[in-house]
Amino acid sequence: MLKLYAMFLTLIFLVELVAAIVGFVFRHEIKNNFQSNYKMALRQYNATGDYRSAVVDKIQKTLHCCGVTNYTDWKDTDYYLGKGFPKSCCKIEDCSPQKDTDKVNTEGCFVKVIAIIESEMGVVAGISFGVACFQLIGIFLAYCLSRAITNNQYEIV
């Protein structure tokens, strides 16, 4: 059973290692994919409670930004043509910006999201390294205990 535990732990460790390598190799594609999906969410934005719209609002309120690259990204959307900027673009609480560019944040959200992700990469890498170390220690100790039990099996009488 200990050998089986160690094998499963090794398998999980290898899957995590492959996932980390793939994430590192394809990090630029992940950024491009995020940017294209964010642009699509802006084009399909509506204030009726769609989950994509809620995410766009949450990002814009939290990071104090508007649009993907800047606030002008909203001008290409159907929502802007009908109602103007969403309330989540406002510089201050409880405003209705409509099409007034003075009341909205001018900076885009993509740059801010990427900056936050890159600033937190050290923490993620540190935690991942710590988990990997504990897994390796667990694998080593499971094999050692299994070997000790196997070697002492014939001495017990």
Automatic annotation (TrEMBL):
Top-level lineage group: Eukaryota
Annotated compartments: Membrane
TM regions (residue ranges): 6-26, 122-143
Keyword Transmembrane helix: yes
Keywords: Membrane, Transmembrane, Transmembrane helix
Gene3D superfamilies linked: Tetraspanin (1.10.1450.10)
Recorded topology in the membrane: Multi-pass membrane protein
Coiled coil feature spans: none
Name of this chain's protein: Tetraspanin-6 isoform X3
Species: Erinaceus europaeus
Gene symbol of the encoding locus: TSPAN6
